[in-house]
Amino acid sequence: MFNLSEFENFMERKSYSFNTKKMYLLNVNNFLNLCLEKKLDVCKITGPDMFRLVDYIASNRTKQSANAYLSAVATFYNYLLSYGYIDIIPISKGHYLKIEKEEKRALSSEEQEIFKIYVLNSSDKLKHSFLLMLYGGLRVSELSSIKKVNFKNDLLVFDVLGKRNKKRTVFIDDYPDTVSLLELFDKGYYLDLKVSSLKNTISNISRKLGFPITCHTLRHTYATNKASDSMPISVLQTLMGHANISITSQYVHIQDDTILSYFANKDR
After folding, report:
1. What is the full DSSP assignment across 65-98?
2. Does 155 share its domain with 70?
3. Domain count, the chain
4. Does the residue 103 lie in any domain?
5. What's the CA gap between 223 and 236, in Å, rounded?
């Protein structure tokens, strides 16, 4: 009979990370208990059975969380197949939940204020992670690359590593909590929260605040704010770390009668 220690050894040989193994074991244990509750034999579950289980799982989780759960279950069934406990895997990509394409939008002025007030009451690492995306246009993956922050001439200045490890310098002149950010880095702390954790947190914040918002929404908002303040798009391109100015233009969401004028004067 299969056991979780054997499953853990299976993941070890497949070189899963420590955190992935920990999460998969948690989810698989939850799945085994669910099967017990539903009086289903784990080794005899069929595709239709799995669809019913997925419906139950989806009713208690977000789509992202449910799909992460199903990834653990799929890995578990790969283990069962490899060790000869089953002859066919009952879970496939068809059982995963479809996630709608992320809406490209910028927060309104009112939404920005509500969001800022909310995150200012969060822990320092969480607060500054979200504020730097909103006020500095950072990608969520770039936060952990910040090692030192300076404040001179009323500007926050720091370096980040963008895509393909390209280094760029970020300047922020309107950061709402400069003192706290400088103190955080002076103590030797980094913004090393996991990307998945930040995305899940902002998803929860979105539900609480009642309007759609993701980490990438903050980057779109930054670009739109700077464009609305008449920053040349060529400068904005550099600050955001885009290789092509056409990519930068996709982040700007301003009224139609304004946007034509803005892009017509992109080099001013």
Report:
1. HHHHHHHHHHHHHHHHHHTTS-SS----GGGSPP
2. no
3. 2
4. no
5. 7
The three-class DSSP label of residue 209 is helix
d(C-alpha 129, C-alpha 143), whole Å: 7
Domain CATH number, residue 85: 1.10.150.130
Residue 124: CB atoms within 10 Å: 15
Which residues lie closer than 8 Å to 117 by C-beta, 6 or more apart? none
> Could you tell me the residue range of the domain that residue 64 belongs to?
4-95
135 with 223, same domain: the answer is yes
Residues 159 and 243 in one domain: yes
Each residue's pLDDT tens digit in the chain (268 positions)?
899 999 999 999 998 888 889 999 999 999 999 999 999 999 999 989 999 999 998 887 877 788 889 999 999 999 999 999 999 999 998 898 876 666 689 999 999 999 999 999 999 999 999 999 999 999 999 999 999 999 999 999 999 999 888 999 999 999 999 999 999 999 999 999 988 889 889 999 999 999 999 999 999 999 999 999 999 999 999 999 998 999 999 999 986 545 545 555 555 4
Report the number of secondary-structure helices (H) and strands (E) in the chain: 12, 3
Alpha-carbon distance 80 to 86, whole Å?
6
Q: Which two tokens stand for residue 238?
A: 């550099």
Separation CA 156–CA 131 (nearest Å): 13
